[in-house]
Design a protein that fits this description.
The chain is an all-alpha fold and 241 residues long. It contains eleven helices and no strands.
C-alpha cells in the first residue's frame, strides 16, 4: 500500500479493522498500518485522530486498544510536530486513566503507553501546564480509588516522574519536588488502609514491587525510615504468610 494514495476513508477503514472479531483480520490491519508508517507521505495527524477515536470507543476490547497504542507509539515526530506529539501524550494519559476507572488494566497496554510517552514527550515542548490536569487526575485515583486502581496509578506516575519519561524543565523544579512528595504521600497512605481492604495476598506482589523500587531510589533517609517503621508496625497485625 502506497501511503501517498491513502485518503481519510481508507485510513479510517484500516483503523476500524483493528477491532475486527477475526484475529487474522485485525492482525493484518495492524501490520499494514505499521508498514504505512515507513512512508514519509503518510498523514500522521489523521492516523493519530483515527487511532484515538477507536481506542476511546465505549467497550473497546483491550486487544484493540493495544493495537491502537502500539501503532500510535510508532509515529515519528520532528521539531515542527509539537502539537501532534502533545496530542499523543494527552491521549496516552487519558487512555490509561480510563482503563484504571474501568478496572481493565493490561500490562502490555501499560508498557505500550510508557513507550509512547517516552517517544512523544521530548517533541511536545514540555508544556507542563497542559499535562498537569492529566497528572492530577492520576493522583486523585492514586488517593481515592480501590487498592488495585491506586497501585496502577502510582506505578505509571513512578515511571513518568521517576523513570525519566517526563523530565520537567528547570523552571518547574519546585513542581517536580512537589509531585515527588505527593507521590510518596499517596504510597504511604496505602500502608494505612484497613487490612480488610487489602486484596488476596497473591495480588499484593505488584504493590510490594512498587514499594521496593521506591524505597531503593529514595534519597530522603527520614522518609525511608518512616516507611520502614510503618511496615514493621503492619507486620504485627498480619499472619506470617
Amino acid at each position: 500500500i502506497n501511503a501517498e494514495y491513502l485518503g481519510p476513508v481508507v485510513i479510517s477503514l484500516l483503523v476500524d479493522k483493528l477491532g475486527d472479531p477475526l484475529s487474522s483480520v485485525s492482525h493484518k490491519s495492524y501490520h499494514l498500518l505499521l508498514n504505512m508508517l515507513s512512508e514519509s507521505s503518510l498523514n500522521q495527524a489523521l492516523l493519530q485522530t483515527e487511532l484515538e477515536r477507536v481506542a476511546f470507543l465505549k467497550g473497546c476490547p483491550p486487544k484493540t486498544i493495544k493495537y491502537c497504542v502500539n501503532v500510535m507509539n510508532q509515529l515519528v515526530f520532528n521539531k515542527d510536530e509539537r502539537k501532534l506529539a502533545l496530542k499523543c501524550v494527552q491521549s496516552y494519559l487519558s487512555l490509561f486513566r480510563q482503563m484504571i476507572l474501568m478496572d481493565s488494566i493490561d500490562q502490555s497496554v501499560t508498557n505500550a503507553v510508557i513507550v509512547g510517552l517516552r517517544r512523544a514527550f521530548p517533541y511536545s515542548g514540555a508544556d507542563f501546564s497542559v499535562l498537569e490536569h492529566h497528572l492530577n487526575s492520576l493522583f486523585i485515583l492514586a488517593n481515592t480509588g480501590n487498592f488495585t486502581q491506586r497501585v496502577s496509578s502510582l506505578a505509571l506516575l513512578q515511571q513518568l516522574l521517576k523513570g525519566g519519561a517526563i523530565q520537567l524543565q528547570h523552571k518547574h523544579k519546585e513542581t517536580q519536588i512537589g509531585f515527588d512528595e505527593r507521590w510518596y504521600r499517596a504510597l504511604y497512605q496505602l500502608l494505612l488502609i484497613s487490612p480488610y481492604q487489602l486484596p488476596h495476598s497473591s495480588q499484593l506482589s505488584g504493590f510490594f514491587s512498587l514499594l521496593h523500587k521506591a524505597l531503593r531510589s529514595d534519597k530522603n533517609l527520614l522518609r525511608v525510615a518512616a516507611f520502614t517503621h510503618r511496615l514493621l508496625q503492619r507486620c504485627m497485625f498480619h499472619k506470617e504468610a
